[in-house]
Amino acid sequence: MKMDTYYHPKDLARFAEMGREAPELWQKFLEWYNAVFKEGALTEREKALIALAVAHAVQCPYCIDAYSTACLEKGSTPEQMTEAVHVAAAIRGGASLVHGVQMRSHVDKLSM
Amino acid sequence: MALLTLLNSRHPLADAAAQRATLAALPLGRTFEAAAASAGHDPLRTTDIAVFQINVGKRCNQACHHCHVDAGPDRTEVMAPEVVDACLRFLEASDIPTIDITGGAPELHPLFRDIVRRARDAGRHVMDRCNLTITRLPNYADLPEFLAEHAVEVVASLPSFAERQTDAQRGEGVFADSIAALRRFNELGYGVEGSGLLLHLVTNPVGAFLPGSQAALEVDWKRELRRRYSVSFNRLYTITNMPISRYLQFLIDSGNLQGYMDRLAGAFNPAAVEGLMCRSTLSVGWDGRLYDCDFNQMLDIGTAGKAPQTIFDATPASLASRRIAVGPHCFGCTAGAGSSCGGATTR
Fold first, then answer.
1. Is B220 on the interface with A (CB under 8 A)?
2. Is B259 on the interface with A (CB under 8 A)?
């Protein structure tokens, strides 16, 4: 029996069900997705670390699980993976902080 | 605290039958026989014996968490002299080019050096499955020189170029001792391009996941071991952890067993069946019993059908084209890029 929660780890294995009502779109997505993660100018290991960081930035629990495994399989260490999460956090934190410049501009406009 | 073997901690999984039953009860979608048949191998059969692998005993100076042998300092199984002699006579009477000596720590066997000398006198290539730390024990400090003198191919285990991961799998302090041992081997020419002395490293994942691309990992490893520790080696072999003995215990205790086996079965690669090591390797246990591979040996799955059961009643001809005994654990050798004692089996 499923617990009363929005996310279920086993649902990651059901991802392909998204192709049932729109098979052509799913197929296009899958081909592009697989091509994205193949080795190119970046190695598969580098891409998996980027994916891990982005997964934390967008807070997708399925992606976090999937790319934690992928990073380990491609030879990244927990230390490297933790630094990647910090990169995501730094960008998210920095993105909030830099909008503070907009705040300052607006405050300047309104203030005497 | 030292890790006890399953046997000496009286764990239920010390019984091979219990392990086989645990694996047989897992729903995997299809049997390995069916998967192999789908790849054109119905049944899976051997080709010529290219490697004669003898497991000389379960005694080891380490007790690694992932060990499929359940080896450790508290094991007492050692290949008797008459079994050693039978193995070497079998080898000498054959055309088999390579003998692969494994264990436990095979170097702990009292006749290890005699086995090496006799195999080399017979013109065979010798491989030693070395845990590296054995060379740091006082009575075995001259082992690297002995191996170099006889041009033995050293296949050494090192799960990670990072200390924390290595020690997590193999025990505290193993990484530091391993690096010291590798430096000694390098000083003698092992792992140095052009020396003729081969030193390969084996990495098993430190957890419930598959190994990555062997070629890509080798690039990373060569760079990092040279940069961090001034250590060099020839090839990196990635080996998938098999759901046997202590690794099976880890999978069960961590709640990863079904997920890991689903991963292995789901990653079945038909192209990996052709190069399965059981097709060209004969495995001999410490007691002289014959197996298709070291994994079957630890699950106590002997040779199938009417094939000879022990080294005493076997000839190479009597073992030719025999049907291989398979089970759910075999998905470990066909997952992804495939896995064997010589690393990935597909490119």
1. yes
2. no
ipTM of the complex: 0.77
Closest-CA residue of B relative to A74 is B212
d(CA B330, CA B276): 10
Q: Which chain A residues have any C-beta within 8 angstroms of a chain B C-beta?
A: 39, 43-45, 69, 72-75, 77-79
A2 within domain boundaries: no
Domain that holds residue A72: 37-110
For residue B232, give both structure tokens.
Answer: 């060099």
Chain A: give the shortest CA distance to residue B129, in Å.
23
pLDDT band at B1 (very low <50, low <70, confident <90, very high): very low
* Number of domains making up chain A: 1
Cα angle: B187, vertex B189, B192; to 5 degrees: 110
- Tens of pLDDT, residues B222-265: 999 999 999 999 999 999 999 999 999 999 999 999 999 999 99
Structure tokens at B238: 């990635």
CATH placement of domain B12-334: 3.20.20
Q: Round to the nearest angstrom and report the end-to-end CA distance of chain A.
A: 62
Which CATH number do you get for residue A80?
A: 1.20.1290.10
Q: Answer whether B205 sits within 8 Å of A79, measured CB to CB.
A: no
Name which of A39, A44, A72 to mutate to probe chain B: the one with the most chain B Cβ atoms within 10 A of its Cβ. Answer: A72
Residue of A49, A68, A74 best to disrupt the B interface, most CBs of B under 10 A: A74
Tokens of B96: 């088999």
Q: Comparing C-alpha atoms, which of B104, B156, B149 is closest to residue B127?
A: B156
Task: Kindly state the tokens that stand for A40.
Answer: 């190119």
**B5 three-state secondary structure:** coil
Chain B residues inside the 8 Å CB shell of A74: 212-213, 216-217
Contact present, B273 and B334 (Cβ < 8 Å): yes
